[in-house]
């Protein structure tokens, strides 16, 4: 498992310069616009994209077929992508946390915003991985875009209705969010394992 994750990190290392340029670019935009949340959101999005790119690398190089000739199980291949996603998002969380504190945000607000951004990133990874394992990166990307478009339209439409959450619900939102992520994680991993088990290499 460790070897699989190191392999992914090594492959992603090839994109270091591009990622660094993007990070600096969005960092400057965030500073000039006085909006530290923008940087955190973009950084989280970039980490999610790196997870997708790692699967694209594997597909292009036919890595999966080769890996299964070694003492590596299909479950290992699947779980390594989830672990990679968590590690990358934790890096984004740490960078976002330090950046917000450096811009003068208070600790409580910084922690709350960073946790929300982390949970959003985790949910995105949990949502997209089963589709990528099922349809591959090329087809999966279109399906993912469609899903996020529909979700965005639903949230926008709900906002226009004037719908507001009660204070009682908002007070429970942190706990509910964590429970949703745990449930989504169980469903996502189970779905990915089932898909990958029957996948032809």
UniProtKB/TrEMBL annotation:
UniProt keywords, alphabetically: Membrane, Transmembrane, Transmembrane helix
InterPro entries: ABC2_memb-like
Segments passing through the bilayer: 16-32, 38-57, 78-98, 110-133, 140-159, 171-196
Superkingdom of source: Bacteria
Pfam families hit by this protein: ABC2_membrane_5
Protein name in UniProt: ABC-2 transporter permease
Species name: Thermoclostridium stercorarium (strain ATCC 35414 / DSM 8532 / NCIMB 11754)
């Amino acid at each position: 498992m460790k070897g699989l994750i190191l392999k992914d990190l090594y492959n992603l290392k090839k994109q270091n310069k591009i990622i660094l340029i993007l990070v600096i670019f969005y960092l400057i935009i965030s500073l000039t616009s006085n909006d530290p949340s923008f940087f955190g959101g973009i950084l989280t999005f970039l980490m999610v994209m790196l997870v997708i790119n790692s699967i694209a690398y594997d597909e292009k190089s036919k890595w999966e077929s080769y890996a299964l000739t070694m003492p590596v199980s299909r479950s290992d291949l699947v779980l390594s992508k989830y672990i990679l996603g968590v590690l990358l998002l934790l890096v984004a969380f740490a960078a976002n946390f330090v950046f917000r504190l450096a811009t003068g945000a208070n600790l409580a607000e910084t922690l709350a915003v960073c946790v929300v951004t982390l949970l959003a990133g985790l949910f995105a990874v949990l949502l997209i991985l089963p589709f990528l394992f099922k349809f591959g990166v090329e087809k999966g990307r279109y399906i993912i875009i469609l899903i996020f478009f529909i979700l965005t339209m639903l949230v926008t439409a709900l906002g226009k209705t004037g719908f507001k959450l009660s204070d009682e619900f908002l007070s429970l939102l942190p706990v509910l969010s964590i429970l949703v992520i745990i449930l989504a994680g169980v469903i996502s991993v189970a779905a990915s394992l089932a898909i990958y088990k029957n996948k032809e290499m």
